[in-house]
Write a structure and sequence with these properties.
The chain has 202 residues and is mostly helical. It is 56% helix and 0% strand. The protein is globular, with a radius of gyration of 20 Å.
């Protein structure tokens, strides 16, 4: 009898990691249905989340959970697109802390793939100069270094970057004090130059 119980417990224990893996896969598929396969976006208004530093991704989800960042409604881009629109605040509110940490760790392991997109080549040099002067200290390697534990900029979807800058300028999105000083001094032309520089990184 004892042996039978031990065998049963062993089977349950062996099955637990597979169940956890299946749960994580299901959560990631839900994310991918908006952010693209393996977290690589094909849509200008939707950011790529693959390759984000684990801390950055988890922190963003906790901020959404608190409703402290704008949460625009969005349709699912793939999979069952007949599902009702959703938003990041509602999604994050339904995640546990363990799920947030597991998602952040899983996407951090995936390769970051810069978007192939059209950009204005005449603005790239001005944007690079602005980045090198004001942004590179915290967003090195054209804003593509995950070790900085900062959001990905180079190769990110340009429509998303524009909305991000708009939210920062309107104080709708939390930002470090030094970053706010930089954002406040940027003109609309400066922002467009930066966006096109980041979009040129492919």
């Amino acid at each position: 009898m004892k042996r039978q119980i031990l065998i049963s417990l062993s089977i349950v224990a062996l099955g637990m990691p597979a169940l956890a893996s299946a749960d994580l896969d299901a959560l990631m598929q839900e994310c991918n249905d908006c952010h693209g396969d393996n977290g690589v976006s094909q849509w200008t208004d939707m950011p790529t989340i693959a390759g984000l530093a684990e801390f950055v991704h988890a922190d963003a989800l906790y901020i959404y959970m608190d409703g402290a960042r704008p949460c625009a409604d969005s349709e699912y881009r793939q999979g069952d697109t007949s599902r009702p629109v959703t938003n990041m605040c509602d999604i994050a509110a339904n995640l546990t802390e363990d799920q947030i940490d597991e998602l952040a760790a899983a996407y951090a392991e995936l390769p970051y793939v810069p978007a192939t997109q059209e950009f204005d080549a005449s603005l790239v040099d001005a944007g690079k100069a602005l980045h090198d002067k004001h942004c590179d200290r915290c967003h090195s390697d054209a804003g593509m270094n995950p070790d900085d534990e900062a959001g990905m900029l180079g190769g990110q979807q340009m429509g998303y970057l524009r909305s991000m800058f708009e939210q920062y300028a309107a104080n709708e999105r939390e930002q470090p004090g030094k970053m706010k000083e930089v954002v406040d001094m940027l003109s609309p032309d400066d922002v467009e130059a930066l966006v096109n520089y980041y979009g040129s990184v492919q």
